[in-house]
Amino acid sequence: MQAQQLNVETIASNLANVNTAGYKRSRVSFSDLVALDPARRTAALAGSDAGLLAPVMRMGAGVGVAGISKLFDAGDIKKTDLPMDIIVQGEGFFEVQTPDGTPAYTRGGTWTVNRDGNLATSAGLALKPAIAVPDDVQALVVQPDGRVQARVAGQQSLADLGKIDL
C-alpha cells in the first residue's frame, strides 16, 4: 500500500507540473519483497544445522519501492517568441549559481535579466559563467556552439556576450 501511495503521489506531481518549463517527470520502480520462514531464518542466523537447514524464501510478501528515477527525456518544445527563452536540445544542463554560491543545474530555458544585469532563471539564479546583457538588447541569439550574441539597438552586427557551457 505504501509503495503504491508513493507511486500515486509521484504521478500526481508529474501531472501538476505538466506545463512547467523544464520540469522532468519521475518514475517509481518496484521490487518484490521476499519473506523468510521465521523458524528457519532464526536457525540459520544462529548457525545451527548450517548447511542442512537453509532459509526458505517465499514470494508474496508484497512490493517495495526499488527507487525513484528522474526521466531526462526531452519535453515538448514550445515557441514563445520571447527573446531570452532558450532550450537544450539533447543532453546537458544549464549551470546556475544559488545565493550561497553552490552550483545548481536546470534544463528550464525561461531566462530573464536579474538586477545585476546578468542572464538568470525566472527565479533569479544567475547563469554560470555570468553573461551580462546590455540594457538595449533587442534579441538574443544562441549559436549551436553555445556562444551568446545580442542584437543591440543601433548596431548592424551581433555583439558577443559570452558562452553557455552545457
Shape: elongated
In total, the number of strands is 12
User: How much helical structure, as a percent, in the residues?
Assistant: 10-25%
- Beta content: 25-35%
* Count of separate DSSP helical elements: 2
Radius of gyration: 26 Å
Q: Ends: how far apart? A: 41 Å
H-E string: HEEHEEEEEEEEEE
Q: How many structural domains can be distinguished in the coordinates? A: 2
> How much is the average pLDDT?
82
Q: Order of strands across the biggest sheet? A: 6-5-9
Helix/strand structural class: alpha+beta
Note poorly predicted spans: none
In short:
This is Flagellar basal-body rod protein flgG, putative. Keywords: Cell projection, Cilium, Flagellum. The chain is of the alpha+beta class.
Could you characterize the architecture of this molecule?
Residues 1-24 form the Flagellar basal body rod protein N-terminal domain. Residues 88-150 form the Flagellar hook protein FlgE/F/G-like D1 domain. This is Flagellar basal-body rod protein flgG, putative. Keywords: Cell projection, Cilium, Flagellum. By secondary structure, the protein is an alpha+beta fold. It has two domains: 1-70, no CATH class; 85-163, no CATH class. It contains two helices and twelve strands. A three-stranded antiparallel beta sheet has the order 6-5-9, with no helix packed on it. Strands 10-11-12 form a three-stranded antiparallel beta sheet, with no helix packed on it. Strand 10 (137-142) and strand 11 (147-152) form a beta hairpin.
